């Protein structure tokens, strides 16, 4: 939570006081924000995202194997 607080304080300074952070500060804020999202995301959301990735990968593989879009659609029915 300390990292998130630092990120939000810096964001306020940039927005309202026109502060110009160092590139390292920008990188740290981005890393902290990504970590926060990963830590607070629900397990169900993770499973849904993984399922979407799996479906997309399967569709891509069927197209790459020479089957047409119509054939891929018929396979799903």
Q: What is the topology?
A:
Elements lengths: L1 H15 L6 H18 L2 H22 L4 H8 L1
Helix pairs in contact: 1-2
Account of the 3D structure:
Helix 1 crosses helix 2. The protein has 77 residues and is mostly helical. The longest helix has 22 residues, at 43-64. It contains 4 helices and no strands. The protein folds into 2 domains: 1-40, no CATH class; 42-77.
Order of helices and strands: HHHH
Computed Rg = 21 Å
N-end to C-end Cα span: 48 Å
Give the helix proportion (percent range). Answer: over 70%
Main sheet properties: none
The tally of helices reads: 4
Structural class: mainly alpha
Report the sheet-strand fraction: under 5%
The geometry reads as elongated
What is the number of domains?
2
Q: What keywords describe this structure?
A:
2 domains; mainly alpha; 77 residues
Short description:
82% of the residues lie in helices and 0% in strands.
């Amino acid at each position: 939570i300390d990292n998130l607080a630092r990120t939000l304080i810096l964001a306020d300074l940039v927005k309202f006081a026109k502060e110009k952070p160092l590139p390292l500060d920008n990188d740290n804020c981005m890393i902290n924000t990504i970590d926060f999202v990963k830590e607070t995301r629900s397990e169900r959301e993770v499973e849904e995202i993984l399922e979407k990735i799996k479906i997309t990968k399967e569709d891509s593989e069927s197209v790459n194997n020479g089957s047409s879009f119509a054939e891929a659609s018929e396979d799903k029915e």
